[in-house]
Automatic annotation (TrEMBL):
Lineage of the organism: Eukaryota, Metazoa, Chordata, Craniata, Vertebrata
Example GO biological process: mitochondrial calcium ion homeostasis
Keyword terms: Calcium, Calcium transport, Ion transport, Membrane, Mitochondrion, Mitochondrion inner membrane, Transit peptide, Transmembrane, Transmembrane helix, Transport
Region of interest (Disordered), ranges: 23-46
UniProt xrefs under InterPro entries: MCU_reg
Compartment list: Mitochondrion inner membrane
GO cellular component: uniplex complex
A Pfam family matched in the record: DDDD
Statement: the UniProt record of this protein carries the keyword GTP-binding: no
Chain's role: Essential regulatory subunit of the mitochondrial calcium uniporter complex (uniplex), a complex that mediates calcium uptake into mitochondria.
Name the record gives this protein: Essential MCU regulator, mitochondrial
Subunit composition and interactions: Component of the uniplex complex. Interacts (via the transmembrane region) with MCU (via the first transmembrane region); the interaction is direct.
Main location group: mitochondrion
Amino acid sequence: MASLVGRLSRAVFIRNAATLGRNTGSKSANATGPTLSRTAVSSTAGSIPPKPVKVPFGLTRMTILVVPFLYVGTLISKSFATLLEEHDIFVPDDDDDDD
């Protein structure tokens, strides 16, 4: 029983190593196994997929969304830094600017 489990695990390991290995090309003309190919340019049937949907005004929409939230984030951080300085939790030293 143990030898059967050992043989099966060895066979699975060899099959997975061959599939996941870097050199997946067939070694001989009669070799059978999965044929790995990229389907980014074509589908499994060989046809060219349609163009992806283009979002109109994508960069403009992203800018309109990002800029206000960055501004709000800077306002919050400035007010928090002022609060820390008022309560003497964090006070930057003026001596650090010596050049």
